[in-house]
Amino acid sequence: MATNEVKAEASRHQNVRHDGINETDNVRHEGVNATDNVRHEGVNATDNVRHHGVNETDNVRHHGVNETDNVRHGGVNETENVNHDGVNETDNVRHDWVNETDNVRHHGVNETDNVRHDGVNETDNVRHDGVNETENVNHDGVNETDNVRHDWVNETDNVRYDGINETDNVRLDGVNETDNVRHDGVNETDNVHHDGVNETDNVHHDGVNQTDNVRHDFINETDNVRHDWVNETENVNHDGVNETDNVRHDWVNETDNVRYDGINETDNVRHDWVNETDNVRHDGVNETDNVRHDWINETDNVRHDGVNEMAIIELLSLP
């Protein structure tokens, strides 16, 4: 296109977070048209909304599943105020892939009574991800309507689902569950959220032995830390990489208050599968400077998902 058109396009995209589709005015999107201070991930959305894969409306934040307690860990032993995924944990802990009990969040197993599930039939005040569900549900990935978060399934009316048919304000993750329960891959009971590990008493775990209000995701971690597949320490969220000190990472080596997803990054940055630097969140592309991207080369306070784009600075500097 002509230089003026390129600059105009750059101006339209400045200070905007995009994820793979046309979007407008201070909006964060991930894969669909969205409008006005909205964060989207894969579907048309409107008015201060964050979506992940489905049409949604009216001040809604959507993701797909799994988050709880002051700390999230990914795959390692952790302790004190930590969220775990995939290991035995105890006392106010979130687990993933293990049997747990009493105020626990589960992922992938039968659970009961005030539990969040992901991937199974559940009933009554349950959050689901991946199946047809109804009434007050959060969905990600399917046609949905009215303040709803969906995950890969047709759903209706303020409901979030994760992989199974569910009913009435229920979120499920991989298991049959009942009555205000969220589960993720494990048998659980009584207000419990689990993620693949045996746990007990208000615990959310994700793949690791943990203790006392801890959430973990397949990594050794310590003290108010969320981790995912990486060794980390103290108030850190990691996903797949060695990291340290108030950092959330996803599959990359990173350091100092950084969240990464798939790439080496540094300093208060969240990344997803791309090399990036300085307060930037990326998803699938090389980017720089306070930018969140998803699968595209971009630059300067812009988040994109699924489209080739150029740095605003480069566009505006064209002759």
Automatic annotation (TrEMBL):
Residues 59-72, 81-90, 179-210 have a biased composition (Basic and acidic residues). InterPro entries: Chromatin_remod_comp_subunit. Residues 59-90, 109-145, 177-210 are annotated as: Disordered. This is Uncharacterized protein.
